[in-house]
Amino acid sequence: MNLLLARRLTGTTGLAAAVALLLEVPLYFVYSGAPPASNVLSRLLIGVLALGCVLAFALSFRELVGQADPRHAWIGRFAGTAGPAYAVVTLVSSGLEAGAVIASDHPIDPTITVTGTYILYGAIGRMLMAMFLGSVGLAILRTSILPHWAGLLTCALALLNLAFLPSLFFGSTPAHFYAANGWGTTALMGAIFSWWLLGTSLALLRHPKPPTT
Q: Which ranges does the record mark as transmembrane (predicted)?
């Protein structure tokens, strides 16, 4: 795989993931109370497709870094491990939630979650996302596959994810911003990641060659 192909593949898979995630996030805010099963299953289905594209984005990014500068291929490998780890953990939590919805004939009470999923969506997901974004940001800074400011922004988003690790001490009520599965910990951080992914992917596709430094 050459550098041009790696940039296009990374940009395309990232763009597909971003579009799917941006379609999913608003579904969390449609209902103020308990959402019906159709709403939960719809957003989970879109999320599963998005996570598949995130996995492909992370693996493509690993190849992109290796092609851009073999000296820093290890950073790409780190990102190519942390990204799929995040995707797999989130897919597991989505599967547990979907199973609970399918097995129930009642709307999902937003104050109740499947045991353990709020930790997978919350603190564990935030840690893995921080590792992924941190390695992507470092790779951008070291290889110049994107402008320097993009690397700094990505590293800042990694730190923002780390700030939500202690949320597991603040209950499990989704309506609370900083709860283990609160809307800030999950939906807001997911929305920020979606916009970051969209911008990064468009930048890779608009500039088939790395910017000059």
A: 12-34, 40-61, 82-103, 118-141, 148-170, 182-205
